[in-house]
Write a structure and sequence with these properties.
It is built from one helix and 16 strands. The protein is mostly beta strands and 191 residues long. The longest helix has 10 residues, at 179-188. It is elongated.
Length: 191
Amino acid sequence: MLTNVTISGNSANATGGGMFNSSSSPVITNSILWGNTATSGDNNVYNIGSAPTYDYSLVGGIDLSSTSMGNLNGADPTNDPKFVNWINPTLGGWTATPDGDYRLKLNSPAINKGDNAAITTSIDTDLAGKPRISNGAIDMGAYETILPTPDINNIVYVTVTGAGDSTGSSWTNAYPGLADPLLASEIYLPI
């Protein structure tokens, strides 16, 4: 079972650049498999004698929108997950790099498209340690998009510890810390 994972930027010198399933039935929920490459077969997922179940997921090149609940059509290019910095794997010449950033841009179709019920109390943070559910719904993939909410004048209120609901919409609801609002303005807002 894979829940809230992102598999991207991988390559295979055969089939299944992201995932190769043989005689198995994996359950994949709230996940993104996108931007992997393979020399033959499907780039993202290759199945031989396998029947994966996908729920609330996005798999590049595969239309899952009619197969189960909440899936996005990965064959539709408008459903590109829009990673902050996707790394394009090169077959045969790939080297590991720390430069990939698989958080989602604000215009990603995967934001708030996951299934909250798939998360247990033991999995309450994302890969970056942020709360797993934001704005009422969980995102697909390994990272949750959590941004401060400016007031009507586009001001985000910030204190060291935060206050109220910590959205940043007022002093009563001040966002905790300055780092995330600055990061949001740098990474997410110039879409």
